[in-house]
Amino acid sequence: MNNIKETHNHGKEVVISIKGLYKSFDDNHVLQGIDFDLHKGENVIVLGRSGSGKSVLIKIIAGLMKPDKGIVKVLGKDVHKLNKKELIELRLKIGFLFQHSALYDSMTVRENLEFPMRRNIRDISEDKIDEAVKDVLDAVGLAETSDQMPSELSGGQQKRIGIARMLIMKPEVILYDEPTAGLDPLTSYEINDLINEVQKRYKTSSVIITHDLTCAKKTGDRLLMLIDGKFLRQGDFDEVFDTDDERVKGFYDYNFIE
């Protein structure tokens, strides 16, 4: 199966490239020499237990946190060498779905969706905003919610609106932080479908941070397993878990016992 993936990605543009990435917090060595490439159009899963450094990794990719050592390139730009203005420009091409949808409680769904456009695009017409709002609400299957407040929505709907708000700026790269955390199994299933739908409809490339094996299996073109600060295994779902390594088997069991 590895060969199929390699052929599939052969010649494909690399949209994120990470080399020799290290990050520690005092004596906690969270990332200890991470290397990986994300190819255009690919969904890569980073799997690991809570506290294993998954969220630190995507914060570093988004330029929200500095590494101790290593190179992080996103869309050809060396993230940690950019000045503030360049970093803001790059971030407009990166969609970041936070674990908690981070909607503004005082704004309607429509106002939440309009906000990034009004803040980041000068002289945009109301027609263009209306069209963009309609498009992303349609994409997440919630066209009827535009005048509702976030508090009136279920957890799954809030997650969908979070995805819609991320999509409105048409990002090239998406970073998902635990997209199914706190959701019931049926809603998680729907969010997994939506992640795949977004990949097809918007031609996005994504890093999906999760410890949810169902999410990993359903949405990932390739899986990377983060254990003890390093990527211990990578490949498709079956390849990653086809091992006698107790750390990997333990993660699999922990996932279903938890």
CATH domain class name = Alpha Beta
Major β-sheet annotation = 6 strands, mixed
Query: Looking at this structure, what is the CATH superfamily?
Result: P-loop containing nucleotide triphosphate hydrolases
Instruction: Give the N-terminus to C-terminus distance in angstroms.
Output: 30 Å
Global mean pLDDT = 89
- The CATH architecture name reads 3-Layer(aba) Sandwich
Helix and strand run: HEEEHEEHEHHHEHEHEEHH
The percent range for helix content is: 40-55%
How many DSSP-defined strands? 10
Features:
258 residues, alpha/beta, 10 strands, 41% helix, disordered N terminus, Rossmann fold, 10 helices, six-stranded mixed β-sheet, four-stranded antiparallel β-sheet
Outline:
With 258 residues, the protein is of the alpha/beta class.
